[in-house]
């Protein structure tokens, strides 16, 4: 791989663009009752709502990982697809009178590398994104990151880590567990951070702070990871649940494996790389899956994980609108986003 390097990092390439509320549009239904509610009607610019959406409009990690760029354009499109989904009756009843306090839009961290490859723009974007994540966690909200490439994961983790600083000072270090739905382990060894390295970087960060690395990767394909990566997974004690396990093992067995993982940790960072799903369902990704795991399985497992009440950070990564068909991939991402939002609010 050839990496062009700039001599001085250009900090102006990274910006935090505030919420663009024109993205929040949908059907007008003046002849229906007030129960015909959609998420576009509830979203507000982020202040201190229960949930804060924050975009990571950056695919430089994908470029560095020799992938197909384009994921940078995804956050507004996922928002637009989510905005058009109805708010379920249970939520309307539970939060009657407080619906405007549920969902905040914290805008996008935008990484401009149009002219190719600047040395440290990804790292700067991760830091700026982590700051936004950390602010939301400290205010008691659940941040949900919208990628962007899967380099978002290192930023999500850093944001969560920063927010936990106060707890750590009190000598009660919460144990973080990471659950990643992904065809790829994303623990590559590399001289630079990429979309294929975030969980190896997190492992190193935790090791440097004498903290254990708890990582469960669900949907791993033996055709998408080398033996070297499986070796590293074993060395790092990664709980690997393969795509074939997801097809052939009974639900109860898999749910038990994941519940055992959840029981070992205090808080969870949940990340969904959309290339865990079959390319027929999600064509708009850098690395489409020939096999993939079922959407119904992912949703059921996400609900199970959310029901633990331990998820303090979540994100959805790798949607690449350039390769999408009829917004299919964005719609699936929006559905998973709605699942996380609903479950978080219902279990609050
Ligand atoms: N986040 C993606 N990571 C994958 C991409 C694989 C590919 O582009 O083929 C990985 O590095 O393994
Ligand atoms: Mn992947
Ligand atoms: Mn990934």
TrEMBL record:
Mn(2+) 1 binds at residues 150, 182, 186, 273. The keyword Hydrolase applies. Residues 1-21 are annotated as: Disordered. It catalyses: N-formimidoyl-L-glutamate + H2O = formamide + L-glutamate. Keywords: Histidine metabolism, Hydrolase, Manganese, Metal-binding. Residues 1-18 have a biased composition (Low complexity). It comes from the Bacteria. Pfam families: Arginase (PF00491). Belongs to the arginase family. Catalyzes the conversion of N-formimidoyl-L-glutamate to L-glutamate and formamide. This is Formimidoylglutamase. It comes from Psychrobacter glaciei.
